[in-house]
Amino acid sequence: MTTKLTWHGHATLGLETGGYKLVIDPFFTGNPAADISPAAVQADFLLVSHGHGDHVGDAIAIARRTGATIISNYEIASWFEGQGVKKTYGQHLGGGHKHPFGYLKLTLALHGSMLPDGSYGGNPCGFLLTTNEGKKLYFAQDTGLFGDMKLIGEEGLDVAVIPIGDNYTMGPNDALRAVRMLEPKVVVPIHYNTWELIAQDAAAWKVRVEQETNTKVIVLKPGESYSV
Ligand code: NI
Ligand code: MN
Q1: Closest ligand to Cα 194
Q2: Inter-residue contact 178 to 170 (CB < 8 Å)
Q3: Average pLDDT over residues 102-130
Q4: For a tag on the chain, would you pick the N or C end, based on fewer CB atoms within 10 A?
Q5: Nearest bound ligand to CA 54?
Q6: CA of 50 to the centre of ligand 2 (A)
Q7: How far apart are CA 177 and CA 147, in angstroms?
Q8: In this structure, what CATH number is given to the domain that contains residue 161?
Q9: What pLDDT sits at residue 1?
Q10: Phi-psi domain of 25 (left: phi exceeds 0; alpha: psi -120 through 50; beta: other)
Q11: In a domain, 122, yes or no
Q12: Range of the structural domain that residue 160 is part of
């Protein structure tokens, strides 16, 4: 069984694996790059990397409608519970847990995490998923470059999903350095072209990465998928 990854624009990703539907950072309303409306989203699990509005997104409305479980750091999971979300699951940086869809570990991210109402959102995170079929997928979400990406790469990544937009996260140059440390088989760039401020030429970045590393770059358009 394959794992299907779909980019919905910005840092919003759908993942179908082992018969489960996951959405990472479900930002649809107000996301000019989104290819679908939040009402069309099906989910069993929602993964939220940090408290910023462009990542919390429509998580509450989708969880209410679908009954999905929201997984995040402990502070954000507790905040969602306080917002009336019935099923939440809190983990923390470096901690992994065996969920029905696979083993999920929360990884470091260099970023902020204040929630939309100003509440404390703990530390931002990325996600390292080992699927039930043994594939390893790393979702960096919002982060600057950090040297411990080397440690994440040591796990042997099939896919890394990393930001290239600059300004709020790594830009193209640091994202290339990230690929050198992560050494994934495939890298998918995200968190760019949502707004003018984070506009980037992903096709040019693909050429550079494929010239300078052994990693293959998959540039998706919003709504497009890649099967792992
Ligand atoms: Ni952010
Ligand atoms: Mn962001």
Answers
A1: 2
A2: yes
A3: 98
A4: N
A5: 2
A6: 9
A7: 10
A8: 3.60.15.10
A9: 72
A10: left
A11: yes
A12: 4-220
